[in-house]
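PROTOCOL LOG
Step 1. Enter all chains and additional molecules of the complex.
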Amino acid sequence: MQGSQNIIETIDLVKDYDSMEGKIRALDNLNVKIPSGAVALIGPNGSGKSTLIRTILGLLEPTEGQIIINQEKNHGNLRGNIGYFPEQNILITKVNAVKFISHFGQLSGLSKSRSMQRTHEVLDYVGLGEERYRVVEKYSTGMKQRLLFASALVHDPDLIILDEPTSGLSPEGREEMLGLIKEINKKYNKSILFSTHILKDVESICDYAIVLNKGKIIFQGGIEEIRKIQKKTIILEVDNNKDEVLNELIKQGYIASLSKERICIESDGSMELDKITEIVTKLNSRLISLKNHEPNLQDLFLHLIDRDIDQYNNGGI
Ligand SMILES: Nc1ncnc2c1ncn2[C@@H]1O[C@H](COP(=O)(O)OP(=O)(O)OP(=O)(O)O)[C@@H](O)[C@H]1O
Ligand SMILES: [Mg+2]
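Step 2. Run joint prediction.
Step 3. Record the structure below.
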């Protein structure tokens, strides 16, 4: 499925849930274009990531709009070509991993013997080979995540959709899971769509990202574009003459502001820290700390939301 065309498109997709408080619009006229390759779906809690994934998989009926998979509207059979790693832990089961995965394989249309063969291959691949006859219920969180990944791979689909595959994992578990996902994409040429809250996960795997907020798209495009719009900042703390330092920075052309008693200076990456130190000393202030701030997902959301509001106000959307 790797190539340049979109593997999934949605047209004016709407999903409403009925709840005690009334109707909840979880997806609000989405026009998503998902290319082949490795694509991240990012957004805060409740932004609609899982709803979008479940609607694409046919587990939820859209309220309005269409989903096109591989350029086909009638795509019931194409969904068999998708592997799914669900958000909720559904592994409360007393069977062992071999039984669990081979059952998934058969549900996905493999014959009994082919499913068994694939089961052993994928369990080895995700690193559960030695634990294959242990009861799944007794697995650690990391093992359960790997087992779910194996269940998404057993029928050898071309596209694998993973809903928060790294959530709840230790740093090492996360690295291992990311390594497997990366390998599936790069070495085995599978397309990946995965949702996450962690910007570092996105940067290490994806070529493309879709950012949702309150059921709407606030960004879709190449990861390079995200890198460009992510503003780096320098955080400066001084213990006196704060306002003078801030004014001098602004006078010298820096984009700077005060936040929580610290001075935040926008950086294009080439800014010299020496120059800022010089300004602080010149104004008889004392430097407490000066450091580069690596933008996180929260910064990115805030920036994209601002950008979205600006575009809306300027009639751009
Ligand atoms: N079964 C449901 N019934 C009613 N409302 C729902 C249901 N499932 C989701 N919602 C609501 O739809 C919106 C989108 O939820 P969704 O689970 O798709 O978000 P998400 O981006 O996956 O969030 P998270 O990061 O927490 O997993 C939220 O407002 C949520 O409360
Ligand atoms: Mg979710």
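Step 4. Note key features.
The two ends are 31 Å apart (CA to CA).
The first helix runs from residue 49 to 56.
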